[in-house]
């Protein structure tokens, strides 16, 4: 969701002169937190999930499913409700980017105790029940990664319907009216476009079915130059052949996901956990795949990641390497000036953090603000952590509130979070906020939302158990980050479970053992999750079961936890279909589908996830 502040957001032209002020004071705010909390130890392992729902309105007489834009009205009720038992705290509900989206979190963190892990599914079920209780009779809360007909032009896809002619996104397909009305969101949308110098360009490969045109040239793109000057971009090459073209932040930030945030005992444990989970992020992206449908078409990918990455890509042409750097190019950083930036600000991790990280595995060309690095190191921050923060701060702050320009850097972390919260990576390293209630945390961010509460509980519990097993057995999963990036692209491919192999280290030997020969090899997801038959690479599922063996659980508890672990394992080996494969096969076999890659309004209504809730 990011940082939601109250105030008056500055227009981009007014914000640019203040960008360096935000960076400078953001560094001082991080230093204040680091000085106060660097010696903090003894925090208990606690964690929480973030679930995102789409509110879908069913028009049953016309066989249509549309996105309900009543977020504000629904949240005004949900945020004041306390409809749970005495044994359970009230869950919390939050706004998200789309006015059809609601985020939920548990009322208080879970622990890693098995009895607490068994509460997760019921907690998720209660959250869905509470949301549904406060909806209209024809509305349902849906945990679906991407709405199949978001942005279509042949029929309304929102309730109520609006025309796509808003000044924030200037989209050919999406109305600004579906953006959360909090001033941060339309300002963020407009400023990404203004900083970039053009609308965002997202091209997802179309799935070529037997009746799909070759080449596929999207016939629904309205090349109307009278709407906005940028619309001519579509005709001039922004919309690529054989692709589903999308042109607004809402196509990415309008997707739903499942995230897990875990608190560590102290800073070094958090850094260790951050590092060891980085190689796992592409693998759980592939296993949780759930988004094969975009803008009314069947895509040739199964995951949302590159869609969101493109949706918030604010890099200029020069920064993307698509044009030479000009003397008058807007600077993303007044100290370093324009430069190439390899990635969108929503992408995979670029550097390991723990002091024990092998130098050769930190093999990414890390763009940093050298002044930030030097300032942090002068205060005693070690090089890896200093470069991590300096990498975040190479970006511009996208939304600055006039009321928050001047802050007490010892009491506030708003300037730091301004940049921290708009660097959306597969893992996020989270310092404690001001106050003494919360410790050092890591956020696991790649997974797609699942259709049922059981599945979302299974993936959440699996991540927590895997993290505990990694720490318990002191495993070493380091591998070159460049190969993690390759895995991220492979993870999004159609049916990656069966068609892709993934780079991974061949030995997970405990750090306490003698040095052994380690190398990077390619494995199927089945091998990575179930093992390759060797003791060195045991597989995630057996590893988690070994960890559970150490806890001496009663039979009922172990059986329930096994069901969660086994669900993830069966997705990884193909015994169970991913949500993406299941939806793809449903569409392909439905009598309304014409095998032309088109998801009609009536077919969209028939897709079973639309009726789940």
From TrEMBL:
- Ranges of biased composition (kind: Basic and acidic residues): 317-332
Highest classification ranks of the organism: Eukaryota, Fungi, Dikarya, Basidiomycota, Ustilaginomycotina
Homology family: Belongs to the glutamate--cysteine ligase type 3 family.
Q: Which gene encodes it?
A: GSH1
User: According to the UniProt record, where is the region Disordered?
Assistant: 317-341
Enzyme Commission no: 6.3.2.2
Gene Ontology MF terms: ATP binding; glutamate-cysteine ligase activity
The name of this protein is: Glutamate--cysteine ligase
Catalytic function, reaction form: L-cysteine + L-glutamate + ATP = gamma-L-glutamyl-L-cysteine + ADP + phosphate + H(+)
Q: Which GO terms describe its cellular component?
A: glutamate-cysteine ligase complex
Enzyme class, top EC level, equals ligase
Metabolic or biological pathway: Sulfur metabolism; glutathione biosynthesis; glutathione from L-cysteine and L-glutamate: step 1/2
GO biological process annotations for this chain's record? Answer: glutathione biosynthetic process
């Amino acid at each position: 969701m990011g940082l939601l502040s109250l105030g008056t957001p500055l227009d981009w032209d007014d914000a640019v002169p203040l960008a360096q002020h935000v960076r400078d004071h953001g560094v001082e705010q991080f230093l204040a937190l680091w000085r106060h909390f660097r010696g903090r130890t003894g925090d208990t392992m606690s964690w929480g999930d973030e679930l995102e729902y789409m509110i879908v309105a069913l028009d049953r007489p016309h066989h249509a499913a549309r996105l309900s834009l009543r977020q504000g009205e629904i949240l005004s009720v949900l945020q004041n409700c306390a409809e749970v038992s005495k044994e359970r705290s009230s869950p919390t509900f939050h706004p998200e980017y789309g006015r059809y989206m609601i985020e939920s979190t548990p009322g208080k963190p879970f622990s890693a105790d098995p009895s607490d892990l068994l509460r997760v599914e019921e907690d998720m079920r209660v959250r869905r029940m509470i949301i549904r209780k406060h909806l209209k009779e024809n509305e349902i809360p849906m945990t679906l990664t991407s709405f199949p007909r978001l942005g279509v032009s042949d029929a309304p896809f929102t309730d109520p319907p609006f025309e796509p002619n808003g000044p924030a996104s200037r989209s050919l397909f999406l109305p600004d009216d579906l953006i959360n009305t909090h001033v941060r969101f339309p300002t963020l949308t407009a400023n990404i476009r203004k900083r970039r110098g053009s609308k965002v360009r997202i091209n997802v490969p179309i799935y070529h079915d037997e009746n799909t045109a070759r080449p596929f040239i999207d016939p629904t793109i309205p090349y109307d130059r009278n709407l906005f000057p940028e619309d001519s971009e579509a005709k001039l090459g922004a919309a690529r052949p054989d692709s589903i073209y999308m042109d607004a932040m809402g196509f990415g930030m309008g997707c739903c996901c499942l995230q897990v945030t875990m608190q560590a005992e102290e800073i070094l444990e958090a850094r260790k956990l951050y590092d060891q989970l980085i190689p796992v992020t592409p693998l759980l992206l592939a296993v949780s795949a759930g988004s094969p449908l975009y803008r009314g078409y069947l895509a040739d990918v199964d995951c949302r990641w590159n869609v969101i990455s493109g949706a918030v890509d604010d890099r200029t042409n020069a920064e993307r390497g698509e044009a030479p750097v000009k003397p008058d190019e807007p600077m993303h950083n007044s100290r370093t000036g324009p430069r190439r930036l390899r990635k969108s600000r929503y992408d995979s991790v670029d550097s390991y953090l723990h002091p024990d990280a092998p130098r050769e595995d930190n093999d990414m060309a890390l763009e940093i603000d050298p002044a930030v690095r030097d300032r942090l190191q002068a205060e005693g921050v070690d090089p890896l952590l200093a470069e991590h923060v300096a990498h975040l701060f190479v970006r511009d702050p996208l939304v600055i509130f006039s009321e928050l320009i001047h802050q007490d850097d010892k009491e506030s972390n708003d300037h730091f979070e301004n940049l921290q919260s708009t660097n959306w990576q597969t893992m996020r390293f989270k310092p404690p906020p001001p106050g003494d209630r919360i410790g050092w945390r890591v956020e696991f961010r790649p997974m797609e939302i699942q259709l049922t509460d059981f599945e979302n509980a299974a993936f959440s519990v699996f991540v927590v158990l895997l993290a505990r097993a990694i720490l318990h057995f002191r495993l070493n999963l380091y591998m070159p980050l460049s190969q993690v990036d390759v895995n991220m692209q492979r993870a999004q491919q159609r049916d990656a479970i069966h068609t892709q192999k993934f780079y991974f280290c061949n030995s997970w030997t405990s750090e306490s053992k003698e040095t052994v020969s380690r190398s990077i090899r390619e494995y199927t997801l089945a091998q990575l999750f179930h093992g390759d038959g060797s003791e060195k690479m045991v597989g995630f599922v057996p590893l988690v079961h070994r960890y559970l063996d150490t806890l001496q659980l009663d039979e009922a508890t172990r059986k329930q936890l096994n069901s969660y672990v086994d669900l993830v394992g069966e997705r990884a080996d193909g015994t169970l279909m991913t949500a993406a494969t299941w939806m793809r096969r449903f569409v392909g076999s439905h009598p309304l589908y014409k095998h032309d890659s088109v998801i009609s309004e009536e077919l969209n209504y028939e897709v079973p996830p639309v009726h789940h809730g």
